[in-house]
Amino acid sequence: MKLSKRIEAVRQRFLDKETDAVLVNSPHNKFYLGGLFSSSGYLLITKANQYMLVDGRYYEEVQQNNKLFQVELLGGPNTLAERLNSVVAAEGLKQIGFEGRELSYDAYRSLQERIRCRFYSLDLAKIRSIKETAEIETIQTACTMADAAFRHILGYIEAGMSEKTVENELVRFLKEQGGQKDAFDSIVASGVRGALPHGKATDKIIQKGELVTLDFGVIYQHYCSDITRTLAVGRCPEELVRVYAAVKAAGEAAMERAKPGLTLGELDSFARNLIRENGYGDYFGHNLGHGLGIQVHEYPAVAPGNAQRLEEGMVITIEPGIYLPQVGGVRIEEDVLITRGGCRPLTRSSRDLIVI
């Protein structure tokens, strides 16, 4: 979809008799709507026009590469308040919606005090939930890189190595494949630390007989992948083998069930009930998954009670996990595309328990 169609989608969804404009400040939505990925600057979309307000660092670049926006230079006397008030007066704006989850309280107060217009909070998260063909292809490339990194690390990791050493090798390899950077701080959790769902890599030494959970991803052309696999370094305790089987079965059953029309809460409950039936219901404490795209965690949440329905073109994660305190844990995470009749995995690494 062209940027112009995305802009029109914002107009159709958010602009009405009461709302005259939308102010966009999050880097992710500025990129999605205007092709600008930056923590500074704003987009202003009104019923008749669209403006990009940036300082001198981005002005020439935007002028050359984006003809859809009227570009306003910020700096010196051309403050954000001055430029916004100019548009407010010229177009008769009465009320502007802004990204309440993305703008700080102090920044909001400053806008409300200086701009001659009312402001109210809105949520633009849903505008990115259905992925276009080009977005899916880019996410698929990021997932392919993650799969390649997992294959690589299988031949690298060994007992006696620290978790941080493994993390550093993952990041190095992902960048070598053409990734911009890791999508988030990689999780490398071995042994009893596997019971920590967000166990960041430490100096702990990986021992024989331990499970190791690897949760990592890469950003490619501003889109993310996010994969988790748990492997065994030597033979691990039989209880953890049973845990692994329960997690694998829940994830694969959820993928078979995922399809348009099913609510996200129903999908979460289906996998959660399977884990409960295996006796581990008290040890699965997070959502089944989340949306994936420009952000590694974005709309929608695959969470208990979520009545939002899956739609064709959504990309989500399915990541059941079981975490036994002082024993260890298992998580297996797949990135999937919701298709017309079901879902298609974008990450394709083996889900079998691999022993190295």
From TrEMBL:
InterPro entries named in the record: Creatin/AminoP/Spt16_N (IPR029149), Creatinase/aminopeptidase-like (IPR036005), Creatinase_N (IPR000587), Pept_M24 (IPR000994), Pept_M24_MAP (IPR001714), Peptidase_M24B (IPR050659)
Domain Creatinase N-terminal: 6-128
The Peptidase M24 domain, residue ranges: 138-339
GO terms, molecular function: aminopeptidase activity; metalloexopeptidase activity
Keyword Protease: yes
Keywords per UniProt: Aminopeptidase, Hydrolase, Protease
Superkingdom of the source species: Bacteria
CDD domains given in the database record: APP-like (cd01092)
The family this protein is said to belong to: Belongs to the peptidase M24B family.
Protein name: Peptidase m24 methionine aminopeptidase
Organism: Lucifera butyrica
Source species taxonomy: Bacteria, Bacillati, Bacillota, Negativicutes, Veillonellales
